[in-house]
Design brief:
The protein is an alpha+beta fold. The chain has three helices and eight strands. The chain has one domain: Nucleoside Triphosphate Pyrophosphohydrolase. Strands 1, 2, 3, 4, 5, 6, 7 and 8 form an eight-stranded mixed sheet that branches.
Length: about 170
């Protein structure tokens, strides 16, 4: 196996994006979705409510390739699903059902600081664990559909949560 080596020195600047994966974690027993309140020190949308998730980093890619024992050019399947599961565990402490993710949306947007983002949001079923928040996340709430308007959410989250609740039941 060839050791993965990351370089962006030859990358075209107009083709570089943050790659983000989010999970709407749904508890089908009580028909709720987990919302996490972003930290006050976040660069973008501090204090807003959203889903567990995070950015794909070069080190994530190298680790996944090494763990899979593959040649780097073969790549990694379901990389955004794997990233979202990892981020959900880190940010909330919860275990998700390992299969049956549903893509809610994939989109590109420009952050207020000008950085372009490619983001995939998926729905996944809560499997177990108690919510334990990662440092920097201010609060969590299991929210039913009729309560979504009570939260000051990241734009689009309320509609994505509604869709997640219809997909996981």
């Amino acid at each position: 196996m060839i050791k993965p080596e990351i370089s962006v020195s030859e990358a075209k600047q107009d083709k570089l994006f943050y790659v983000v994966a989010n999970f709407a974690v749904v508890n089908p027993k009580d028909k709720t979705v987990l919302l996490l309140q972003r930290g006050a020190n976040e660069k973008v949308l501090p204090g807003k409510w959203g889903f567990a998730g995070g950015k794909l980093e070069h080190g994530n890619v190298a680790e996944m390739i090494e763990e899979g024992g593959k040649d780097p050019i073969e790549g990694v399947n379901n990389v955004l699903g794997k990233l979202a599961v990892k981020e959900a565990k880190e940010e909330s402490g919860l275990t998700l059902k390992s299969e049956g993710y549903h893509v809610i949306t994939d989109k590109v947007f420009i952050r207020p600081d000008g950085i372009p983002v490619f983001m995939v949001t998926m729905a996944a079923e809560y499997q177990g664990g108690e919510v334990t928040l990662e440092e920097g996340i201010m609060a969590s709430a299991w929210v039913a559909e009729e309560q979504l308007t009570d939260y000051d959410c990241v734009p689009g989250i309320q509609n994505e949560a509604r869709k997640a609740l219809t997909l996981i039941h």
